[in-house]
Structures are given as structure tokens and as C-alpha cells.
Amino acid sequence: MSSTHTYRFTFGPWNISTGADPFGPPVRPEMAFAEKIRQYKKLGFDGVQFHDDDVVAYDLPESEKMKKAAELKKVLDDEGLFVEIIAPRLWEDPHTADGAFTSNCPKDRQYALDRAKRCVDLAKVMDCKNYVLWLAREGSYIREAKCAKTAVGRIADAWNTILEHDPEIRVLGEAKPNEPMDQAYLPTVGHMIGLAYKTVDPSRSGVLIESAHSILAGLDPADDMAYALWHEKLWSVHLNDQNGLKYDQDKTFGSADLRRAFDQVWVLDKSGYGKNGEAVGLDIKAMRATKYEDSTKHLSNSRTMFLALLEIVRSVDEAKVNELRDNRQYEDLDLMILKALMGR
């Protein structure tokens, strides 16, 4: 099925970074937040992804938070930007050292629930309906540390708490199999969608799929996307790339495996992703050696790659593809796709 719709692109301000990592300090200056916001339209992007503390500092008084959030919303409106997703940062505070919703400490679990609900309030001010749960520390270092069955139930309870806090919010589970935890309780898209159907409102429960997270689980992102699309629960993506089963690399989209990136664009476009307002989100890091003046090129490069692959996807002869499928001529189909990627 051919498609001609256009796409909107988003990224989060954390994608423009100083290059610091667990093994080394910053290698370039921090770009001021206001300058990051000004970069969006210059780079051809339409919307912003936020964590709660990207919008306002978490320790501000509640009344001050909403005021500051409204001020930022006006800045975004003036720049012609929308807020695609918002997510509570539930992995850096000392209360979340042993997990947030799944912590063994009742006080820590309450902290996580309170922060999760305040993030919903921020989303409302930012006119954002997509609330992402990346369950960063909801897992275990050793199996015996927590009851996994109880933990899954606590995640479901938290998910329901968010849905019940605002009747318009949609919760998108973002699965990742490991890092920072040894093992996550909901490691794959299938796990997330399974839980979504058990919430108080499955119609407002879906997923965000990150390419690298699927790869880290030993799965193909395009197949994960297709699975979620069949369920009509793919409401956002974080496109990037990953060189094998290593740490989360967040490489420029298409830079490690061009065919795999092509397949993601193929399934998204052939399935009509984006026609209901879904955005093409990125979650990528500049290479550590990148200079300050080049510290946004990974973003524009990823957008360029998506659009270039989209052009190839839409140029492929669908009738020929179907003919080759019907005759099980997969070797010919394989060569046809390879030639298309080589521009031949």
C-alpha cells in the first residue's frame, strides 16, 4: 500500500550533550537550554520530547512549577513547536536507587507515584497527551532481591494511577531489556503490550519503541514495530542505531545497519504510521569526539537518513514485490532491495 503523507520529527534536549560518559568527563561546553530550543526549527524538527525536569526543576514548589511550565509552553508556541511526549525521570534520584515503582521501600514507591502524578500535571500544561514510562530501574541486580510477580503488579498499579489521574493522558511503555539494571521486568515490546491490556483503560495504553532497545533484546525493531502496529498501539518511536548486543549506543539512525533502518522506515510507512499525528522521534548521541560546533549534526543527519530511506521505500515497485512474494522468489527480492539501497 503506497503512502504519501508527510512526517513530523522530534527529539529531546538531552540529545544535545557535552559528550560525558561513565568513562570520561565532558568534552565540549554545555549548550544553553534556550539555544537548544532555538535549534529545533533550524534543524528541520517540529516538536520536543521532555522529561519532567527538562520542563521545570522537580524540587520547585508546585505552584511555581506550573507557572514555569506555562512560560516554557509560550516559548515553544512562539517557536512553532509542540510537545510530543513527556516522561518522569525516575532513575536518578536517591529514592530510586532500588527501583521506583518496584522499590522494596514503601516511602520510595510513594515518591515515585507522587512524581509520576506531578508529571501528568505538567503534561496537561504543556498540552501533551503522550506520557512515556521508561522503566529504567524497574528490575533486579539479583533475582532474589525482589519478588518479580509482585514487581509487575506494582508497575501495573502505577500505570493505572497515571491513567486515573487524568482521563485524557495516554501511557506509552518504553521497553528495554537491560542497562541500567541487569534484567528488566518488562524487557520487550511484547511484555509492554501484554501489560497494556491489563490496565484500567487499554485504549489509553500503548508503547514507544526505541530501535536500540529492540536490538539489545536480540529482536528486530521493524518486527517489533509491526507487532505494535497490528495492535494499534505504536504511538511513538525513538529511532537510532546499535552496533550489536552492547551498551545502549544511540547511534545516528542507519549508521550501523542500513538495511535494518530501511526495514523500519518500510514498516512505518506501509502501515500508515504518522497519519494520526504520530511523530518520528529520535534518541541519539553525538560521537564523543564531536566538536561543539558540530554537536547537532547527528540530529539533522538522522532526519536526512529517514527521509532518504523513505524516498527509496516509496520508489520500490510494490507490484513487483508482491509478484516475487507470491512466487517465493526471495533471492530476487533480496537483490531488488539491495540494489534499491545502492541506487541501482
CATH top level label: Alpha Beta
CATH-defined architecture: Alpha-Beta Barrel
Please describe the biggest sheet, giving its number of strands, its sense, and whether it closes into a barrel: 8 strands, parallel
Helix tally equals: 12
State the secondary-structure class: alpha/beta
Unreliable runs: none
Number of domains: 1
- Which strand order does the major sheet show? 3-2-1-10-9-8-6-4
The fourth-level CATH homologous superfamily is: Divalent-metal-dependent TIM barrel enzymes
Rounded to an integer in angstroms, the radius of gyration calculated over CA atoms is 20 Å
What's the overall geometry? globular
End-to-end CA span: 23 Å
Strand content: 5-15%
- The SSE order reads EHEHHEHEEHEEHEHHEHEHHH
Instruction: Return the CATH topology.
Output: TIM Barrel
Provide the residue-averaged pLDDT.
97
Number of strands: 10
